[in-house]
Amino acid sequence: MVTVLSPRPDLWSLDPAVVHLNHGSWGAVPRRTQEVLSALRAEAEANPMRWFRSVPERLTAARLELAAFLDADPAGFALVANASAGITAAFATVPISTGTRIVTTSHVYGASRYAAERVARARGAELYVVDLPMQADDDTVVALIEPALVGASALLVDHVSAATGAILPIARLVELAHDRDVPVIVDGAHAPALIDAPTGDGADFWTGNFHKWPAAPRATAGLVVAERWRTASYPLITSWSEYDERLPERFDMQGTQDYAAWIAAPESLRVLAELEWAVRRPQLTAMLEEGAALVAKALGTSVGELANPAPTLRLVELPSVIADAEPFKARFSREHQIEITLTGYEGRSYLRLSAHAYNTPECYRKLSVALPKVLA
Ligand SMILES: Cc1ncc(COP(=O)(O)O)c(C=O)c1O
After folding, report:
1. For ligand 1, what atom is nearest to the CA of residue 85?
2. Is any ligand 1 atom within 6 A of the Cβ of residue 84?
3. How far is the CA of 26 from the centre of ligand 1 (A)?
4. Which CATH number fits domain 9-30+275-375: 2.30.38.10, 3.90.1150.10, 2.40.320.10, 3.40.50.11540?
5. Exposed, middle or buried by CB within 10 Å (0-12, 13-18, 19+), for 63?
6. Is 89 in the pocket of ligand 1 (CB under 6 A)?
7. What is residue 166's DSSP assignment?
8. pLDDT in tens, 170-189
């Protein structure tokens, strides 16, 4: 018998007067990790010299714990500030030659697309976007991407789509691309804590955020580099570790920065362990599915159907298209004390709902009452 785990909003410092239904965008850091982070910063300010002397050893310990959480080879795991930095570093390494194409899909995250566009502009290549229907299953995704790989110098693909919450078939896409000698960069921003051992599919580069689902302090992400690219891969900031032979150390020290977040990040992994994340995650999925169905019913719409949805993200279709999402979200937050995010796909607008350990069924119920009033 599996125990039904209780929600644990007490572990977070989130404003209890506000309903938080968008963990996916910026995460939320548990109190315990915040305390560790504050203590580290106090230590730095008590004696900056002693703090910076201690950073390399503590960074190594934190990096190894973060790599182990992903089940990644520690020799190919580097710390970066965010998924955007990981993708930019990957594009700085992969040879993109004139006249070739960088292939991506219609799921691509805007900022990651810009990274691809920048490199395409600089090298005289083109960005080629494969349209994937929202409900595409793995076979369809593979079949649609395959013909686009002719003349490609890189494939940029999401592990978990920010637009829809779909999980894409990375292992199959890597195999497909490698058969055609096309390197694969995986945008795994949402993957840590949602997909087990997410870096094991053989991509050339994989990057993912610890500051999303693992609830680590912001600016904590990992870049996993396949063996053949490790010597050629460099961090975006040139600093004293420039000539370090090993990839992880080359990325460790990037000038004078606030390294406290990286060192504090493993505390959030311990919080996840205490939350029995492996048992809790499917329970969050069940709560989210019920909540999303309730909101969809109240709106007279439906829950977005996906072949492989991520466990803690669900789309609910909105009755009409919302062209300018930011003012809508800000006004809804102000007037109803509920934080939500919206996405768009194939010309339709969706709510993208999250579930984390601090959410309760009541969060979705409140949304199901408030949102129809605004959209009526
Ligand atoms: C799929 C995807 N890629 C990249 C990013 C960028 O992450 P960051 O802002 O941490 O660089 C996000 C952020 O939401 C995302 O969802």
Report:
1. 11
2. yes
3. 9
4. 3.90.1150.10
5. buried
6. no
7. B
8. 999 999 999 999 999 999 99
